[in-house]
Amino acid sequence: MRIGIIAHLKHPIAEPFAGGLEMHTHLLARSLRDRGHAVTVFASSRSEPELGLEAICTETAITSVGTTEASDIAFFREHHAYLSLMTGLRNRDFDIIHNNALHYLPLTMADSLPMPMVTTLHTPPFCWLESGLRLCKAPHHALVAVSQSVAAQWSHVAPADAVILNGIDLRKFAFRAQVHSAPYLVWYGRIVPEKGLHLAIEAARLIGLPLRIAGPVLDEDYYRTVIAPTLGADIIHVGHLAHRELAQLVAGASAFLCTPLWDEPYGLVVAEALACGVPVAAFARGAIPEILDSSCGVLAAPGDVGSLAEAGRAALALDRRACRARAEQMCDANRMVESYEALYQQQIDLGRPVPRDGRAAMHLVPPSSPDSLRTMLHG
């Protein structure tokens, strides 16, 4: 298949990843190329060229305290980039377009394309993307949610045609049976207020184990005023690590503290920790209860530090092999990619016209409900 993947533009699709969406897009593109598909990734300029990159814009994230003018410039740069892309795609020969962006224009203009499009919803609803989805009238457009939680949150706008859980490369997060000789807890992700790192620090001190922190500082004020004053010999920020170093840090941990203060759409960090054999103590928000079960994680009351500390102590006793087994069952990238391949082929077949001689073209019957499509994709 000739596949075009539309990425979001705030950060490069390259290591070290700014977050889960960048990692997901990178993994999907690389896996599809490894399977023999011709893949082009429409992304920002510092993304990895080996993915089949066509750069459409420089990165638009405002990493420092942005002015209104800077925000306006970023908005119009993204708008122009996606408008130019969608206009140009009308004359390209892709079999399918996979929209992995968070911008309204690819959705709004999907009906102008000669090929079908798949859009994956990676976030809870927000006004711009919701508006784009409401305006999407493309006849051969399929909507995918990355969790049942996300599908439910978007159901008032449009039903998901499929739920395809995100996956990770299990080889890159290798299982480790034994914890580090000097036990520690781990927290990693984007260092922003909604990820709740400050609560993980409080819980770690209640548990009585050191905490190692990894991830990019994307909110300098939050880091300087809330996080930095709490750092010390027992609470250490090791920086923004590349994939290999991050996997080693996570694998050595006794438990992973996951502290979202919003409804996490999926939670790739949870999948990565489980793959390493690391039990998870997490606030029960968003899709996290879909990934964890009692064999590999303990859920805590959202926002409650005492509950998280109690969950963390209980997680220390869980079987690391059971954690890895759960990752293999729920979070394998091969399952995710195979599901997308099946969906791509279905949409391509549905978009083929019936031949003029009256013979029926080969195609799949449109599912009558999202459940029937999930059955078709997953067996």
From TrEMBL:
List, for all copies, the residue spans of the domain called Glycosyltransferase subfamily 4-like N-terminal.
19-171
Gene3D superfamilies per the UniProt record, alphabetical: Glycogen Phosphorylase B (3.40.50.2000)
- Which species? Sphingobium xenophagum
Could you list the residue ranges that cross the membrane?
none
InterPro entries membership:
Glyco_trans_1, Glyco_trans_4-like_N, Glycosyltransferase_grp1
Residues annotated as domain Glycosyl transferase family: 181-326
This protein's superkingdom?
Bacteria
- The molecule here is called Glycosyltransferase involved in cell wall biosynthesis
